[in-house]
Amino acid sequence: MEPIRILLVDDHEVVRTGLRMLIQDEADILILGEASTGEEAIALTRELQPEVVVMDLTLPDISGIDITRTLKNETPQVAVVALTIHEDQQYFFEMLKAGATGYVPKRAAPEDLISAIRAAHSGEVYLYPSLARTLVEDFIHRASQEARPSVLENLTHREKEVLGYLAEGLTNEEIANKLLISKHTVARHRENLMRKLNLHSRSDLVRYAVRKGVIQP
What is the CATH number of domain 151-209? Predict the structure, then answer.
């Protein structure tokens, strides 16, 4: 059985040395090369054609996220495993969107990285448990948000009319004349709109009305 061919990308030599020592005893994994910059990582991937790239996110020239995006565009078959100190959601989600199939913090146990490399090579996704939980929590949050009825649905027919006219730039008096109601009634509808939609200015109203299709841009 052919070993898994990998490329190590990290700008710290001591980290790469530690990774070599960790991986060299694994009979099913072969280190083809090492890169300390983004440019080297891209060039060596093109030259050596590794199956898995172990990618640090913080490099001196190009971010690991941008490198991953480039590698996946050029060679979709290459799998990328992030090995990084960054555990916040921003880096995590951006790396997944760029095409990484593994995400392991540097504080993780050595066997976690080995498992991630093997999983990536098999076409599977490996996420460190705490980060996997973050992904699940984000999914649940998004699903619950989508399940909520649109705030627009809670507006009365008259409030929607006032919203449309306000977004189109009409004054309270002009809206009153259009709807045959008093300026005070228009002002009350406007206050209700601001409260229900959590908006604070006419420009907010315009953006909201365009986004929801109440008016056309």
Answer: 1.10.10.10
